[in-house]
Design a protein that fits this description.
The chain has about 400 residues and is α/β, with parallel strands linked by helices. It folds into three domains: about 140 residues, NAD(P)-binding Rossmann-like Domain (Rossmann fold, 3-Layer(aba) Sandwich); about 170 residues, ATP-grasp fold, B domain (D-amino Acid Aminotransferase, Chain A, domain 1); about 55 residues. The protein is built from 13 helices and 15 strands. The strands form three sheets. It has a seven-stranded mixed beta sheet. The chain has a five-stranded parallel beta sheet with strand order 3-2-1-4-5, with helices on both faces. α1 links the parallel β1 and β2. α5 packs across α6. The longest helix has 19 residues. The two termini are about 40 Å apart.
């Protein structure tokens, strides 16, 4: 955590259970900021980081929105916070209390309506119409009859919930399709299947301008779900598309996209996450904090190394079979772990605590591990009354 010129500023990072939040904390600490962190779990990974001055426990925004926003305001006022920086899906609840929170500090967040346009996969597919990169053909499904009609089509589709995360509920075959029971309160969409190379991107936007950008290939992943190895690449078309969306919405906040490049070279955007994602690990010191810092600094320089979730790599050395073991070893050797840092030795221990806490939630509520990881902060389009 190389320390740059100090700004003497204070940042409060929410969703501090996430790896992206840990990356933020280290970047802001390295830029001379005083870093505070908050979440509604007892053992967020940031709590174990030396980058964090103090960590706070808040109520779940899904269960107690007023308590959540009031708690943030108390921290902001007591510790004279300059910048509130959301990292995960708690951003939607922060957006609902934006007017109140902006009375006390700068908030890196858009209003809820703009976030909904991006988070809702159907609305986002419509937003991309006329853009230089568009979504594959997309059909909204609001009843089981819509799914039955889909089975008669010759085109190949992927079924996704309109609100979803980690690709956990996606369906890829006709037999799986029959298990999907969409409704008006749980809409799904069918998206034309495009075979090709997958890319992901992360962008930092301020007032419609992209201030930082990273693009990568998730070359190791959990099946068809989340990636855990992030190979940086340069894709100018992706950067231009992000600029187009940011400008179109005059957006301030996190933007992250998933893409497929077909063998023909055509690029398709699959979905958007208006929150921090794994691309943040690829930013150089100064890139993340630059838009919020005063004074001139030299141009940030990246080392070009891939980043990985090291323990996930260690759990899957034979993911590509015995023949892929040499490739796995080479990939592991050249990547940098996003969690482990010898200057931040308590992070792995707190991460174990965090995993155990999530496991307890999974067992007690009878939900999957991934669902348990975000159950108290996720938002699936339900009405959120503004927190006056």
């Amino acid at each position: 955590m190389t320390v740059l010129e100090s700004d003497g500023m204070r940042v409060l990072i929410t969703g501090s259970r996430s790896y992206a939040a840990l990356e933020m904390a280290r970047h802001f600490k390295g830029a001379g900021w005083e870093v505070y962190a908050a979440d509604c779990v007892r053992f967020p990974v940031c709590r174990g980081s030396r980058a964090v001055t103090q960590s706070f426990l808040l109520p779940s925004p899904r269960q107690d929105l007023r308590g959540f926003v009031d708690g943030l305001i108390r921290i902001i006022k007591q510790y004279r916070i300059d910048l509130l920086m959301p990292s995960s899906e708690e951003i939607f609840y922060i957006a609902s209390g934006l007017d109140r929170l902006r009375n006390h500090c700068r908030v890196y967040c858009e209003d809820l309506e703009k976030l909904r346009l991006l988070h809702n996969k159907w609305e986002f597919s419509r937003l991309t119409a006329g853009c230089r990169v568009q979504s594959p053909g997309t059909i909204l499904l609001t009843s089981p009859a819509d799914v039955e009609r889909l089975l008669a089509f010759e085109k190949r589709y992927v079924l996704k919930p309109v609100y979803g995360r980690f690709a956990a509920r996606n369906r890829f075959g006709s037999e799986d399709f029959r298990q999907v029971r969409p409704g008006k309160d749980d809409p799904w969409l069918a998206q034309e299947y495009v075979q090709g190379v997958e890319y992901c991107s992360y962008h930092l936007a301020v007032a419609g301008e992209i201030k930082a950008h990273a693009c990568y290939r998730p070359i190791h992943r959990w099946g068809k779900a989340s990636g855990y190895y992030f190979q940086p690449v340069e894709k100018p078309g992706i950067a231009r598309f992000a600029e187009e969306i940011a400008r179109k919405l005059r957006f301030t906040g996190h933007l992250a996209f998933d893409f497929i490049e077909a063998p023909s070279g055509a690029l398709y955007v699959l979905e958007c996450n208006p929150r921090a994602t794994s691309g943040i690990h690829l930013l150089a010191p100064g890139e993340l904090t630059g838009p919020f810092s005063s004074g001139k600094r030299g141009a940030p320089r990246r080392d070009g190394r891939p980043k990985m979730i090291g323990y996930a790599m260690l759990l899957r050395p034979f993911d590509r079979g015995i023949r892929g073991l040499r490739r796995w070893a080479a990939d592991f050797a050249r990547a940098e772990d996003v969690l482990f840092d010898p200057r931040d030795p308590w992070v792995p221990l707190y991460h174990l605590f965090s995993l155990f806490e999530t496991l307890c939630v999974s067992v007690s509520r009878g939900v999957g591990f991934k669902d348990a990881a975000t159950a108290d902060i996720e938002w699936d389009g339900e009405d959120i009354k503004p927190c006056e």
